[in-house]
Amino acid sequence: MEVKMADKFVKIANFSELQEGRGLQRVVNEHEVGLFCEDGKVFAINGECPHVGGPLGEGFVEDGKVYCPLHGWPFDLKTGKCLTNPRSKVECFTTKVEDGEVFVCVSE
Question: Which domains does the chain have, with CATH numbers?
Answer without folding.
Answer: 9-105 (2.102.10.10)
